[in-house]
Amino acid sequence: MSRATDPALRARVQALVPRLVLERARSGPHGRIGAGRLRPVRADRGGDLDLDASLEAVAVARGEGRPPSLDELTASVWERPATALCLLVDRSGSMDGQRLATAAMAAAACALRAAESGGELAVVAFDRRAEPVVALGTPSPARRTVERVLGLRGHGMTSLDAALRAAREQLARARARRRITVLLSDCRVTDDVDPLPAARVLDELLVVAPASDDDEARRFAREAGARMASLDRLAELPAVLDHLLAP
User: Fold this and answer.
1) In what order do the strands lie in the sheet with 74-79?
2) CA dist list (Å): 108 to 14, 142, 150, 235
3) Which positions fall inside the VWFA domain (predicted)?
4) Average pLDDT value for residue range 191-198
5) From 28, 48, 126, 224, which residue has the greatest number of CB atoms within 10 Å?
6) Residue 96 belongs to what H/E stretch?
7) With 50 as the cut, is the pLDDT of residue 20 above it?
8) Which segment, 24-28, 41-45, 62-66, 92-96, is predicted with the most confidence on average?
């Protein structure tokens, strides 16, 4: 696989980035996060006045013969649940340039979703070994993340076990309550390590595979208890990821 640095390919990916807005407010897997939560703030910062929480400040102000100021009162605002995403990019010999472009698109989508939800992002490339492209907690704008993924070189073997273990290690550092691993691969394992034990301990595993070669990915997702979707064209990626990342 050649180095994917073609200017036209870069332009195509960057032009589609604005479409990759995947965050859904108040979403969470199986109710583990819920529809968001109320967070107390000073009333001068907006939100709805919390009368119960403001009673003491009102009483103090009344005792001093003055109206309470907004910065003494308490309001409540809705806080969307934060999400941590780890994108696993298969750069083994089974992935061609078009699939690497798809990986860059997925990286941009995950970067936007993590940023909008107040969450965190890790991107890990793997062949027989796993290597962080963007470590969890490291600031990386969507465009820079895309460039890093497009700059990856392909190698021969495929170890899903190494990739999934790396995802668990990255997400273990997350502050977010929802922790999602997105695996972009045809899931053709070429080493002798069973990846299912590593897959089954992840909080959430989502698999995206090329529609032209998704038999192994479907089998793996079924046995791992993961959600899975097939991708036929690059333009379908926003809808595919939106479907998988929905609660």
Assistant:
1) 37-42, 74-79, 48-49
2) 9, 5, 11, 14
3) 84-244
4) 94
5) 126
6) none
7) no
8) 62-66
For the four alpha carbons of 90, 95, 97 and 102, in that order, the dihedral sign comes to negative
Distances (CA, A) of 84 to 7, 117, 135, 176: 31, 9, 12, 6
Q: Quote the CA–CA distance of 101 and 109 in Å, as a whole number.
A: 12
The predicted pLDDT at position 143 comes to 73
pLDDT at 26: 27
Q: Which domains does the chain have, with CATH numbers?
A: 7-27+82-245 (3.40.50.410), 37-79 (no CATH)
CA 226 from centroid of its chain's CA atoms:
15
pLDDT digits (tens, 9 = 90+) for 50-59: 888 888 888 8
Q: How many CB atoms lie within 10 A of CB 213?
A: 14
pLDDT score recorded for residue 2 = 41
Q: Measure the CA dihedral 118/27/211/225, to 10°.
A: 110
- Structural tokens at position 87: 């994108």
Alpha helices (H) in 21-79, listed in sequence order: 51-63
Write down how long the chain is. Answer: 247
3-state secondary structure at position 57:
helix
Helix axis angle, 7-16 to 97-116, nearest 10°: 30
How would residue 106 be classed by pLDDT, with cut points 50, 70 and 90? confident
The region, left, alpha or beta by phi > 0 then psi within -120 to 50, assigned to residue 133 is alpha
**2: CB partners within 8 A, 6+ apart:** 97
Q: What is the mean pLDDT of residues 158-172?
A: 96
